[in-house]
Amino acid sequence: MKKRIRWPGPLVALAVSAASGCESAPAGTELNPAADNPPKAAENELFIFTAWPAFYVKEDIFEKQLGQLVKQKFPDIKLKHVHWDNPGRRYEDLIAAGTIPDIVFDEVRRNTYRQVRRFDLQYDLTDMIKKYNFDTSKLNPADMQHVINSSDGKIYSPPFNSNEWVLLYNKDVFDKFGVEYPKPGMTWDEAYEKAKKLTRQEGEITYKGFQMNPAHYMKFNQLSEPALDPNEDKASMVSDGWVKVVDNIRRFYDIPGNQLVKTNGFSKGNIAMMIDSLENSVKLINENKNLNFDMAAVPVFPEAPKSKFQPNTNGMFITKQSTKKDLAFQVMAYLLSPEVQTELSKQGVVSPLTDPGVQEAFGQGVPEWKGRSLQSIFALNSAKPPVRKPGLTFIDPNTDLVWKLIATESKDTQTALRMAQDQMNKSINEAKEIEKQGGVNPYQ
Questions:
Q1: Which of 79, 80, 116, 398 has its CA 20 to 30 A from that of 68?
Q2: First to last CA, the chain
Q3: CA 347, CA 363: separation in Å to the nearest integer?
Q4: 8 Å CB contact between 307 and 383
Q5: Shortest CA distance to 100 belongs to which of 371, 323, 368?
Q6: Is the pTM above the cut of 0.85?
Q7: What are phi and psi of 137, to 5 degrees?
Q8: Cα 134 from Cα 126, distance rounded (Å)
Q9: Strand residue runs (E) in 217-325
Q10: In this structure, are strands 165-170 and 271-277 parallel, antiparallel, or unpaired?
Q11: Are 434 and 441 in contact (CB under 8 A)?
C-alpha cells in the first residue's frame, strides 16, 4: 500500500471554512472487518470513498467541493463519506466489512490497476454514458486517454480533476540577477539559459536556477514517449525520443551549483524556477507567505511547441457491486457539469472540462492568488498518454531507476535507459507469472 501524503487541497485550503455536513467515520476509526451482516444502506444513500485527491481527508473540503453541491441538486440523497486512511479505512477494510462504496475517487493511471481492478470493483460505464447521453468529448482528451488505457479500452472512471504540473518562479531571484521572467512558449533551451544565469553563489547562499523531480518529468513527459510498448508485454525505454527527453533534463543538473535537490526547497527562497504538481506547489507556497512568486507555463520542446506534461488524472469509479448505479452516475454527471466545475475551478481545482469559461474561473475564489498568472496553466495542451493495446500487463515505469543510474553511478543516458528497460522487462515477466498463479502484481 502506498504511503499517503496529506496536504491541503490546491487553493481551497487557503480559503475554506465551511463546516462539515456529511456523515463520515472519525479519523482512526476501525471499520469492523468481522461484520457478517453489515447494515443495509437506505435506497437514497450513496456511499462515497475518496482515496485521491488526498485533501478530501479534510471533511470540510469534501463538503465544500462535493457534499453541499450534491445535496443542493439532489436534496433527497444522503451521502456517506469515508476517506482512505491507515489503519482501518483502506479498500480491503471496506470489503472485509461488507461495506463496498457506490462511488470511488482515485488516481486513474496507476490505481485503476493497483486498487480498483485488484479488488474487482471495476465497472464499465460505456452503457451508462449512452443511456444518459453524457458527452465525453467535452473532457480533456489526455485525461480520457489515461482512463481508456487503464480500463482496457473501456471507461471505468470519467476524469474528475487533473493534478497538473506547473512552473513556479521566484520573482525576487529573477529581479536580483536581472533575468527576464518566463513567458508562455518558453523552450527548454531558453529555460536552460535562464537556469545558468540564475544559478549563483552569493555569500553563503546558493541560488539554484531550476529544479524538478526527473522521474516525474520522464513519467509524464511532453513528447508522449511510451515507457511500455504499445502492442506487446515489454518495456520501450530505448529510443531516440527517450534519449532526447533524458538528455534535456540532465543538462540542468550539470550546471555547477545546480545539483538536484527536492523541490520543497522552493519555499526557502533560493530556487529560481521549479516544476511540481499543483497540489505540492501550493503546499510549498503556503510554507512561506512572504514568497514573491508567480506561475508560468512549463517549457516546451520545439517538436511539441503546444504541449505541457501529461496530466496526473483523478477519476470517479462506480463499483460493479453498487446497487445504485443509475443514481451514482447521475451524481457523477452533475459533478462534471459546467455549473459544478466552474465552482471547483474558482476554488483552484483543475477541471477536466475544456470549457473556456470553466478555465477562466480558475482561482478566482482565492484572494491570496489575485494578480498571479493563473491562466498560464491553460496556455498549453496536455500531452496525451501513449495509446496501449488492451489486455497488456501494466507496471509502473521505473523512471526513478533511470535517474539513479545517472546520478549515483554516472551512467550515460543510453546505458541508463537500457538498464532500466531490462529491469522493467524482468518485472513484467515476473508480474505475468505471479498473476498466472493467482497472485497480485507487485509492480503496479
A1: 116
A2: 11
A3: 5
A4: yes
A5: 323
A6: yes
A7: -70, -15
A8: 10
A9: 271-277, 293-296, 307-308, 312-318
A10: antiparallel
A11: yes
